[in-house]
UniProtKB/TrEMBL annotation:
Keywords: Endonuclease, Hydrolase, Membrane, Nuclease, Transmembrane, Transmembrane helix. PANTHER family: MRR RESTRICTION SYSTEM PROTEIN, TYPE IV METHYL-DIRECTED RESTRICTION ENZYME ECOKMRR. It comes from Luteibacter pinisoli. One of its GO terms (molecular function) is DNA binding. The chain crosses the membrane at residues 169-189. The keyword Transmembrane applies. This is Restriction endonuclease. Residues 209-235 are annotated as: Disordered. GO terms for biological process: DNA restriction-modification system.
Length: 235
């Protein structure tokens, strides 16, 4: 058993070393998917598969993968033996131990005794994956940025409500004026009709008075004078 972790001889300071361990594992999975493998991520559901990060399947080949995203310390030989113990769990035909950093000399020697176990260190991994896009850190805008300006209503929105209210008041006023005008015209019409009936009633009453007294009513204006009684010729 190793008594202490050994620091790396060369520490990488690049985009790959700054990935989270989840993104690091995902990047490796994407690479092997592109190589034609079916990639499984069993996780740590129980103690039997603890330490298995990926399972690669392609035809009759089954590969167990353990990912060590270490940048400060070397991966010791204990992880090589742990990988060997996990291979029978899924019936693996080979195993891969991958790190973003370095392995100890004893780990390299232990893997060399087993031809179905391979080690991939940081240098080989970077050559395998190719360039990794640098993640840009999120930065807040400066205090004088327009994004910090308080939210206010626009002048157009402020003028729109009084204008609509004035239009409603004007419409109601116009309807009231129209109603008053119609009521006035109707009143005049009723009054004129009543006066006409009253005058017709007075004329009829006068005719009845003349007939009852035996006197002929006055001739209409511009009528010729009545002819004298007993004369048969023009004067």
């Amino acid at each position: 058993m190793s008594t202490a972790f050994r620091p790396v001889r060369h520490r990488y300071e690049d985009a790959l070393s700054r990935l989270s361990w989840r993104d690091f594992q995902r990047r490796i999975a994407v690479h092997f998917e592109g190589a034609g493998y079916v990639v499984e991520q069993p996780g740590v559901a129980n103690d039997a598969d603890r330490g298995i990060d990926l399972v690669l399947r392609r035809g009759d080949e089954t590969v167990v993968v353990t990912c060590k995203h270490w940048s400060a310390f070397q991966v010791p030989h204990e992880d090589v033996h742990r990988l060997l113990g996990q291979m029978p769990v899924v019936g693996a035909t080979s195993g891969l131990l991958i790190t973003s950093g370095e392995f100890t000399r004893t780990a390299i020697d232990a893997a060399a005794r087993f031809r179905h176990v391979r080690l991939v260190d940081g240098r080989a991994l970077r050559a395998l994956l190719g360039p990794v896009e640098e993640l840009r850190p999120f930065r807040l805008p400066p205090p004088d940025s327009p994004i910090w300006a308080p939210v206010t209503s626009t002048p157009q929105a402020g003028r729109r409500e009084p204008a609509s209210r004035a239009a409603s008041i004007a419409a109601v006023a116009a309807m009231l004026v129209l109603a008053v005008a119609m009521l006035t015209l109707y009143t005049w019409y009723i009054r004129d009709a009543h006066d006409i009936r009253a005058s017709q009633g007075d004329v009829a009453g006068t005719d009845r008075v003349y007939r009852h007294a035996g006197a002929a009513p006055a001739p209409p204006p511009f009528a010729p004078p009545p002819r004298p009684a007993g004369t048969g010729a023009e004067p």
